[in-house]
Amino acid sequence: MPQNNNTPCRYFADPQILACLMRLIPALAAGLLAACGSDQAAGNRGGPSGFGGGAPVTVIAQRLEPQSFTDRYTALGTAQANESIKVTVRSSSVVTGINFREGQPVKAGQVLVKLDTRQEAASLSLAEAQLKQAESQYRRSQALAATQVVSAADLDQLEANLAVARAQVRGAQARLDTLSVRAPFAGVVGLRKVSLGDLVSPDTVITTLDDVSTIKLGFSIPETFMDTVHTDMPISAVTTVYPDQQFAGKVTSIDSRVDPVTRSVAVIATLPNAGGALKPGMFMTVSLEKQRAKVLLIAEESLVPREGRQYVFVIEDGKAAEREVIVGGRTPGFAEIRSGLEAGALVVTEGTQRLHEGTSVTVTPDT
Length: 367
Description:
By secondary structure, the chain is α+β, with helices and mostly antiparallel strands. The protein is 25% helix and 41% strand.
């Protein structure tokens, strides 16, 4: 088959054509460079300027004036019972009676659990019998002492024996009383951990008892709020369990020390809980507010973050000047300036992306 002589490779293989192309390439490159230079010069003469001495950049700016500001802090806390204990026994014995139901409200002094009392009851009977004998001997000796048949020393000894017998009765009665476990305060019992016939010891938890008529809410506040929070200060708390309900209460105690690690202070508030809606262990949120005056606020869009720091542009003598600032509290759309700016500074709020140090600027007339 004959070779196609019209292929482009045929022309590139021609030495004369290659030589002509080599002479044209430098000329084409010079033309392109000249065109780029003219475009750049035209841009410098008439285009917008953000990095040179061209036309000023139009920006929107705000005069920095002191104003009032509200610090808001959300504290997270855990609900606690006003009083809470684990019900246990003082001595080992066998459970003979359970006088409560799980979740039942009980009164102070109500018997919750009875233990085997046979041995202690026998000891009490013996002590009472010895007391009767001591009392009888003492009464007879008193009558004989009047006729000096019984000496004063013997009468004193009988009186001492009587006192010992009375003490033994009280001790036996106390040991017997410990075998009836009573509620030390009014509250609600929890789940039962024992059954009839169980051998229990002081380490055995029978149930729990919580006084939930009042709930203690423990939370922490930063040390900057110490001058705002005080005892009897009203607070309100919410929980995700009842999202549409607020629980009002007041601060009852504030810790006397600041935690050196977290720089916070522990606070306890009490919330009335007559209906029993709140349970110990529930997660709750408390909102605190602190009013401050003469605070410098700027629009958040004025901030230029860079390398973990915050900067703003201010206008001085018609030119942009960059200033590093320290930001404090925030509120929707605004940020507090702690340091880096003074009142009266003209801060750029829109157009910062086209600015750098020394850029000529023009503020729009309507601002």
